[in-house]
Automatic annotation (TrEMBL):
Biological source species: Photobacterium aquae
Taxonomy of the source species: Bacteria, Pseudomonadati, Pseudomonadota, Gammaproteobacteria, Vibrionales
Name used for this protein in its record: glutathione synthase
Chain coiled-coil ranges: none
EC numbers: 6.3.2.3
Pfam families: GSH_synth_ATP (PF03917), GSH_synthase (PF03199)
Gene Ontology MF term list: ATP binding; glutathione binding; glutathione synthase activity; metal ion binding
SUPFAM superfamilies linked to this entry: Glutathione synthetase ATP-binding domain-like (SSF56059), PreATP-grasp domain (SSF52440)
InterPro entries named in the record: Glutathione_synthase, Glutathione_synthase_a-hlx, Glutathione_synthase_C_euk, Glutathione_synthase_N_euk, GSH-S_sub-bd_sf, GSH_synth_subst-bd, PreATP-grasp_dom_sf
Sorted UniProt keywords: ATP-binding, Glutathione biosynthesis, Ligase, Magnesium, Metal-binding, Nucleotide-binding
Annotated metabolic or biological route of this protein: Sulfur metabolism; glutathione biosynthesis; glutathione from L-cysteine and L-glutamate: step 2/2
EC class name: ligase
Length: 490
């Protein structure tokens, strides 16, 4: 730890970089509408170029697979029914999915068009190589922050080269390109224009293609969202933001299943930054005993219109932990069901970490045979705070009822490489020396109707989040994580 008496980096430099961060939107909004910078590392991590290339090759294939699974509606219903019975939130999602795709005509000709904006999170395990932690198919944000973190490190390198060289993990490494903002905006723009073109000649022809972001009330992560909106506006896209509660009274239907928003007009793309937890569907101010039902039906209503959607119910189910487990346990040859050849399937298999369902048999195995530090227990929750480690796993397993088992899964615990040199973490303009930093890399991909829609075959930039190895929760929001960026070594 540093002290006030002998700062590792002159405080003037720290303040300068923090001001740069806030000025460029690398910030969270405080309750009083002021801003605080996101925590960040002062210099980037290093990864072997071959490992990075491997991830760039496999991640679009994962997206191709997840898209195909997400549009296989009968498979989703059949394979996830036990999980849905064990997890009330996913039970409600499955019911909504059944409403949306329960009839043959709905399955064959769904109104909504799937825009899969996905972030696949990896850790580069020191023994097993890079493995998937989880798929993020809904509210898969912070692509703009990923790009901005790379730009922040470039700023440090240009303005404070001695500081950069002192703290960068590998001085001879070259920064990895990151165009996350531009590529996600390109994908959304492509989808928006495609939908709008279907309605050429209607009363909204003169209107700009319009993008609706569904957000949480009193959201603090607004700057990452606004950075994406600004990039979309450069493409001539109009952007609007609404909560589910607002949409419950503001949506209507136009001709040919056109989705209309009060005082705005036609909507072409809906991007959900909310909807991954029960609280997103609760609006006490509506004074409705069934407010959750009303707001979830609003989401269903969106999918019953001709609009590009991320995330669809299907995508959210297909990126669940239970589906990750099923795909991990499935023989590679069975991926042929979704159009992947054996080479593609085996490449995907190379990055899937072992997973086991929770059952009476696996609980007994875990207690008597397993090396308990080699596993993590996960439920279906999104974001931080949903993982249990070490001795605490036994405690949790002892409290689970059999009907709750299918909401949980055991997964091989990953132990990534620790950064070879200490670095400085900056949080609230204060610097801290971290000697055991480990990193998680999230790769963004974008597919529209099953086809890649970026300039890099579906790849759309990266997000690096680093944390001390001693900390279990690495989220920027909900843990001890810090924004980071990537350099490559040969």
């Amino acid at each position: 730890m540093n002290t006030q008496h002998s700062p590792l980096i002159p405080q003037q430099i720290i303040e300068d970089v923090c001001e740069w961060a806030i000025m460029h939107g690398i910030a969270f909004r405080n309750a009083d509408n002021s801003a605080r910078h996101c925590p960040f590392s002062i210099a980037p991590m290093a990864m072997e170029r071959e490992v990075y290339r491997h991830l760039l090759n496999v991640t679009p294939l994962l997206t191709k697979l997840i898209h195909a699974v997400s549009e296989d509606h009968d498979f989703l219903q059949a394979s996830l029914s036990s999980m849905a019975n064990a997890d009330p939130f996913f039970g409600s999602l499955m019911a909504l999915h059944q409403q949306a795709h329960g009839t043959t005509s709905n399955r064959l000709n769904p109104a909504r068009q799937p825009l899969l904006l996905m972030r696949t999170d990896f850790m580069d395990d020191r023994y097993h190589g890079a493995k998937v932690i989880e798929f993020n198919g809904i509210a898969a944000g912070m692509g703009p922050f990923g790009q901005r973190a790379a730009q922040l490190h470039n700023y440090v390198q240009q303005q404070w080269p001695n500081t950069y060289q002192q703290w960068v993990e590998e001085g001879s490494a070259t920064p990895a390109d990151n165009h996350g903002m531009e590529q996600l905006a390109l994908a959304i723009t492509t989808a928006a224009r495609a939908i709008k073109a279907e309605f050429s000649g209607d009363e909204y022809t003169e209107q700009k293609p319009t993008f609706l972001m569904v957000v949480q009330k009193d959201e603090d992560n607004v700057y990452d969202q606004h950075l994406l909106e600004v990039e979309l506006q450069k493409h001539g896209i109009r952007t609007v933001r609404r909560t589910f509660a607002q949409l419950s009274t503001q949506l209507s239907s136009g001709n040919n299943q056109r989705l209309l928003l009060e005082n705005i007009g036609a909507i072409d793309v809906v991007y959900l930054r909310a909807g991954y937890q029960h609280s997103d569907y609760c609006a006490p101010e509506l004074d409705e005993s069934v407010c959750c039902q009303a707001l979830s039906q609003t989401r269903l209503r969106i999918e019953q219109h001709r609009v590009a959607v991320n995330a669809t119910f299907s995508q959210q189910l297909a990126t669940s932990k239970s589906m990750q487990m099923l795909l991990t346990m499935m023989p590679a040859k069975e991926y042929a069901r979704w159009g992947l050849n054996l080479d593609e399937a085996q490449l995907i298999k190379s990055v899937l970490a072992e997973m086991k369902p929770v059952s009476t048999k696996t609980i007994e195995w875990f207690k008597t045979e397993a090396k308990q530090d080699e596993w993590v227990l996960k439920n279906q929750g999104e974001g931080g705070g949903h993982c249990i480690f070490g001795a605490a796993i036994n405690d949790k397993l002892n409290t689970l009822l059999p009907q709750e088992y299918d909401a949980w899964a055991l997964m091989q615990r990953l132990y990534p490489h620790e950064r070879e040199t200490p670095t400085v973490a900056v949080r609230d303009s204060q610097q801290t020396l971290v000697k055991d930093l480990v990193s998680e890399i999230g790769l963004f991909t974008a597919y529209f109707n099953g086809e890649p829609v970026t300039e890099f075959e579906g790849y759309a930039g990266y997000l690096i989040r680093s944390k001390p190895a001693s900390e279990n929760e690495g989220g920027i929001h909900s843990g001890k994580g810090i924004l980071d960026s990537l350099t490559l070594v040969d």
